[in-house]
Amino acid sequence: MNTLLKHTLTASILSTMMAGTAFAAPSEAPPAFVKKVADGLITRLKADHAKLQNNPAAVKTIVRQNLDPYIDSQAFTRIVMGTYATNQYSSAAQRAQFERNFRATLIENYGSAFAKFSNQTYSMRPYKASNSKNPVVTIDFHNNGEKIPVSFQLADKGSQWKIRNINVSGIDLGLQFRNQFAATVKRNGGNIDKAIANFKPDADAALDKKK
């Protein structure tokens, strides 16, 4: 997977997490929720394409303002920290710091990808309804003739849907980030504070696992 495609893909991954100002309620069908936020973000990217290319800070601001409301950051933190998210290895304060750092790092790493967005399109896969509190909605992103399946695992938070994990072309990003964090802990001699401070999730490296 070439660098440009990976940048475009990561932009697509994040795009489904953003847009709009109101939370979706679980009474809304999961695919309708994902489609609504994806459509809103793609429209915004196309409208502001030139401005975003010339102003990376504006891209990060848009990501920061629109990403947080749609992510189950506590669940994502537990997934990525793995066993280190338990009281045996970390404190509540350390987990909160990890959550803040993780979110900020994603914004920093992927902000530039949004500026490269051009005319990417997507199609929704058929959705089979279930009683699961973690339904999965899959979108096929179309980029230069390549179809890239991206699955979003949602969380029913009682009054709204949130995204708790992402799978790209069969690669579980939450699991790959967990492996990266475990390696960071090891490199820092088991010091959780240092590992949290130095951890930088790398989606490109995670997606390269497919090769």
Automatic annotation (TrEMBL):
Keyword terms, alphabetized: Signal
Organism of provenance: Acinetobacter amyesii
Domain of life: Bacteria
Name of the protein in question: Toluene tolerance protein
Gene3D superfamilies: Tgt2/MlaC (3.10.450.710)
Signal peptide: 1-24
